[in-house]
Specification:
The structure is a homodimer of 144-residue chains. With 144 residues, chain A is α+β, with helices and mostly antiparallel strands. The first copy, chain A, is built from six helices and six strands. Chain A binds a DNA duplex (25 and 25 nucleotides) through helix 2 and helix 4.
Chain lengths: 144, 144
Amino acid sequence: MKNPQEVFNEYLAEMNLKATPQRRLILDTIIKQKAHLSSEELYAKVKARDASVGQATVYRTLKLLVEADLVEPLDFADGVTRYEISYGKEHHDHLICSVCGKNIEILDPTIEKRQEEIAKKHGFKLSSHKMYLYGICDDCRKGK
Amino acid sequence: MKNPQEVFNEYLAEMNLKATPQRRLILDTIIKQKAHLSSEELYAKVKARDASVGQATVYRTLKLLVEADLVEPLDFADGVTRYEISYGKEHHDHLICSVCGKNIEILDPTIEKRQEEIAKKHGFKLSSHKMYLYGICDDCRKGK
DNA sequence: ATAGATGCAAATGGTTTGCAGAGCT
DNA sequence: AGCTCTGCAAACCATTTGCATCTAT
């Protein structure tokens, strides 16, 4: 399987866009990150490696990475869009603790299957879905 | 079952807040609406009935209605938060056409049950969830 | 009487964009 | 050389907030 960098380069070439050091740096920074970073957080990490990079470039690159299907935007209901590498990872949804922000990746074939069936029943061709489960985790409940 | 207006009045009384004509008007306008309105759209409808009402009051009242569990915010992924009356309606999720914006309310017990099970398995006490299915509807596909 | 509500306009805050200079191919 | 990028700062836009004035209770 190709690595994300290759895929990104191919995407850029195909779209007649350029592979710049900033774009490489930004992709590399996301890859090295296990967490789900907001654009702001990512910008901080990127800046630590190259202080000259601008905020706007991070936003613009993030958009490209989403279009290239390498990265997926997440909505943890805290007002910021977060991102995670999706390339090479199986699709999954999230279970989020609304107290501490902890989040767990979940994958449930039963649900995925039902979603398809529901869409079909209504004559829709499903293109994507979002499912977020919000709750309070064990630790936060015990901590009380 | 109490009607929404009563519930709202009780909520306001309990919180030592006041039942003002604006608040009544806004709730009434949402109730009369079958669509999922954005704050902006709601503001327009409200203004048609009383031009003196301000935008901010609509936002503020919407927040109250959500806290009172009468209204639920929706995220159709188009940059605006939409709202619908939830009081007296069974919980449901949405299937949205990303071309024409049409949306269908869905309810699937299988999925609901699995969500609970998943949360439990991870030691979470589920407080809410969001599920949106995005796709393209029959009409929009044929229209092409 | 008085805590709370309203409308207005200004402020926020995440994200986008215009522009002039810089860089990739 | 030419088209794309970048950083900066200004612009956007939905939503929030400060404030002086009004109003429900």
